[in-house]
Amino acid sequence: MLRPMTSEPLLQVELPGVRKLKSGKVREIFDLGDCLLLVATDRVSAFDCILPNGIPQKGEVLTQISHFWFDRFASAIPNHRLAGPNDPLPPILQPFQAWLQRRCMVVKKATPLAIECVVRGYLAGSGWKEYRQSQTVCGLSLPAGLSECAELPEPLFTPATKAESGHDENISLEEAARIVGSEIVEEARKASLFLYQSARDYARARGIVIADTKFEFGMFEGKLILIDEVLTPDSSRFWPADQYQPGRGQASFDKQFVRDYLETLAWDKTPPAPALPADVVTKTQAKYLEAFERLTGRSLGTP
What we know:
Layout: E1 19-23, E2 27-31, E3 36-40, E4 45-46, E5 49-50, H1 58-73, H2 97-100, E6 104-107, E7 111-112, E8 115-122, H3 125-134, E9 136-137, E10 140-141, E11 151-157, E12 160-161, E13 169-170, H4 173-180, H5 182-204, E14 208-220, E15 223-227, E16 236-240, H6 256-263, H7 278-296
Antiparallel strand pairs: 1-2, 2-3, 3-6, 4-5, 7-14, 8-11, 8-12, 8-14, 9-10, 12-13, 14-15, 14-16
């Protein structure tokens, strides 16, 4: 099935002749034999439910931001990418290249670690909720008197288990070591903190506060490599730096418009999720595109 270039959101991906391995909340994974193809759709989820309509170009933004960071950190941290954003796709994918290339990535067949590598630089979300109860974040003690969204004294590495559905569960460093091994988790911890701190400083100079983020690593030929998406508005909490003010919730560059709209509805947050109105879709798309433009210094353009 050839798909024409369109401004409509791409919600499903089928590639005749290419075997699909998995369909996640956003990504589709295809088997190319000696490597994998990751395709980012425009699907959007909230409260663990996939919404019936998506955000146009969202998948392109996630893919191209990941390419940007993979390029930036390639010399410091090895990654799973086998081709750059402008490289030709394998012959089997040539019929789909026109609409597929900006939202796909050809990658190594790495074995993912069974933990998520989360780094928190600011006191937000579940971390703020826990801090108010116990003055800790993921069991790690913090100074008294911190306010909501305050910058932490030092970034925290807070691993989590992976959940096929629902929320990931925070775990201790000791539990992470039991799952993947102490040497591997220490290597992942150091890499995660390096990546976060480097990206945080870069993004802040371009008007974005990266409050926290989630990295995924895998093993390939006996070595730890960076995989999946990297430092995107879906895997991170991005705030506009010129509006940042501790002591309250922050504006964001992600699907906050989606969550805010859904909170106004009499919806019990179980499937089926309601469709999004056009203005919420437009505002959310604009935020994703703005994040891309601020980070990369260029425009993504339109199909």
